[in-house]
Amino acid sequence: MIEAPSAVLAAHDAPAVTRSGRSGRISLRRLQHATLWLFVFAGAYVIIEPSAYEILFPLAFIVTALAGMRLPMRAMPLIIFLTLYNIGGGLALIPYLDDEKSVTFVLISIYLAITAIYFAALLTEEGLTRLAVIRSALIWSAWLCGLAGVLGYFDVAGLGSLFTEYGRASGTFKDPNVLGPYLVLPIVYIVQSFLERRTGFIKTLAVLSVPLAALFLTFSRGAWADLVLGLVLLFGLTFVTSPRPAVRLRVMIYVGACVVALLALLAVALSIDEIRQLFEARATLTQSYDVGATGRFGNQLRSTPLLLGDVNGFGPLRFHVHFGADPHNVYINAFASYGWLGGLSYFALIVATWVVGWRTVLRRGPFQSHAIAVWSALAAMTIQGYQIDTDHWRHFYLMLGLIWGIASAAHLTEPARWTRMPTPGLPRHPALPPPPSPT
What we know:
Layout: H1 5-11, E1 16-17, E2 23-24, H2 26-41, H3 52-67, H4 76-93, H5 100-122, H6 127-153, H7 160-163, E3 164-165, E4 168-169, H8 176-182, H9 184-195, H10 201-217, H11 221-241, H12 245-270, H13 273-282, H14 296-308, H15 319-323, H16 330-361, H17 368-384, H18 394-418
Antiparallel strand pairs: 1-2, 3-4
């Protein structure tokens, strides 16, 4: 389940055959896998910025480009909408070029858009191998940053001041509301391995324990909802796409077992007074800062007519100048920070991603398992965007690029591989006789 990084890299370090027929590039492939693993792994360690994620990206990009990748044509909507989105941000920035925070905000948006395109292009070559490397890096990073969150929450060795925020586990992130959603995709991957019988119950429980505990201790309502929806989608899609009744029955049994296990773990956690009190305070649909004319929802309602009347919005990162707080809604923030062009482009990007995501998870082939895992977490996060600003989350752009990359890779590889297979249950046509020789 949680394989050593060296084992993951070695497993995919067989000699590659290039299009020219030459075997080799072993060292370059291994270097590419190692830099990709480190780059993705570093995405969980952003307590100090610029983080190692930013430092490693140029190296990962260069090495991957040398190993092989290309812009997939089927990902052009991703590229076009992200480009328009950031053009809108650039236009909205013009009156605030002397504001360092606004300039930095737009530059970060451009950088994150490039990472999404990189992940989409990454899968055009050796897609399954690179997805396995990414999966390994995500699970390892989730385990270690989750462990930091758990140790910080219980103030082990005085780590509370470093790995908690607002009395909640934040781990190696600056905000518990970011740590929690980050852990969803690794948890989905771990549960999926159990569903597919690639790992046993005890091993799965051991690997799952720390990320799951850390997510709970973030006391992030959005993260809790992300996890529930992500697992519901995982189980549902696995059930629907499985061609065998035995697998569907196993999914139903595992769903029941998971519900019982989660309720038991929740009961144990709530037996601790400190955890129970914070859980009771957080486990409501609204908090005091959500309601009222100047609360989160009130600010969103008051901003709507203003945004409809201003084609360039309020300017990047300037919603709080008008309302004293951030919008906490990524769709409103798209119009507020990037103007009409950015807002419409972002909305179109999410709609297009939903269309591509659903088509990809229902497409049989070698990429379907990864598509189900990534889409289960990403779909939940796009819905969470109505409750929090997700537009600068590194893992959001990672998943965004991956789902478009998986869709492109599935289209590139499946037709050649699957259309040659005879339809089960139907007789093959006899081979045609050779044409008569000329007389």
